[in-house]
Specification:
This protein has about 250 residues and is α+β, with helices and mostly antiparallel strands. Helix content is about 40%, strand content about 20%. It has helices at about 25-35, 35-65, 70, 95-105, 110-120, 145-160, 225-250, and strands at about 5-10, 10-15, 75-80, 90, 130, 170-175, 175-180, 190-200, 200-210.
Length: about 250
């Protein structure tokens, strides 16, 4: 009989084999538990994977910068069964785009908002948007929805078949402010969407969004390490307890 548990993240499977953990005891457990052994094994695998998931979730707030509630709820457990002796922890639908980059340290996907910006023709394809000094951030460090809407409204003013290059560069935001896209300062400042504020005796600009050619997150959440430590400790305990319970309640 094969015993294993693992954590599944998108196409990358982290397998933690537990086959050899209790190899000396497996035959004895099988004889004692009889036909209850698959149930006991599935229970032990599920509880071990559940403990791994809970430990990952417990460490998220200290390892990830201001995780959102959506991020904290981004994992789900797929229990083992007697037919499939493998427990899995997977990304919930929609959470992969947010969690995979900080788990594996690879570039994040382009967001819908960024695709809209690229569609204006002002932003090169494949560029990512990061908040600038004039960006208004929420409690989780993300650009506020209200400001994104204002930028989106400005973008709509840049689009259309009759728009000239000059007329597509700026749109009023109110309070003496306008947005414009480009590389100000004679091309010395970074490509982005800038906010220009006009005063009685001059003006000032600040970046709302800066465009960068890559947005690769560093690994912040050591899922393989956390999972391995928890599973290697818990599975032997859970299997022994599950076998004992199966024997005690056997009819």
């Amino acid at each position: 009989m094969q015993f294993r548990t693992g954590l599944l993240f998108s196409a990358a499977m982290i397998h933690i084999s537990v086959k050899s953990m209790l190899e000396a005891d497996i035959a004895r457990f099988a004889r004692e538990a009889g036909n209850q052994m698959p149930f006991a094994t599935a229970k032990a695998l599920t509880l071990s994977a559940k403990a791994g998931k809970e430990e990952i979730e417990r460490q998220m707030p200290s390892l990830i910068d201001r995780p959102t509630p959506f991020t904290l709820r981004g994992l789900k457990l797929r229990p083992a069964t007697k037919q499939r002796l493998e427990a899995k922890v997977e990304f919930r639908p929609g959470a992969r785009d947010w969690l995979a980059p900080i788990v594996f340290g690879h570039p994040r996907k382009v967001k819908a908002f960024e695709r809209s910006l690229q569609g204006t023709g002002l932003v090169p394809s494949g560029y990512y948007a990061v908040p600038g000094a004039a960006a208004k951030l929420d409690a989780y460090g993300n650009m506020s929805v209200a400001q994104i809407r204002r930028v989106t409204t400005a973008i709509k003013g840049w689009q259309g078949p009759n728009k000239t290059k000059a007329s597509r560069r700026a749109a009023a935001t109110g309070r003496g402010q306008t947005y414009f896209a480009g590389r100000p300062g004679g091309g010395k400042l970074p490509l982005g969407i800038w906010e220009k504020t006009t005063f009685a005796h001059g003006s000032a600009i600040r970046p709302v969004i800066i465009f960068v050619s890559q947005a690769t997150y560093r690994k912040q959440l050591d899922v393989p390490g956390i999972a391995q430590r928890v599973v290697l400790k818990r599975f032997p305990e859970e299997l022994r307890a599950a076998v004992a319970h199966a024997i005690a309640t056997r009819r």
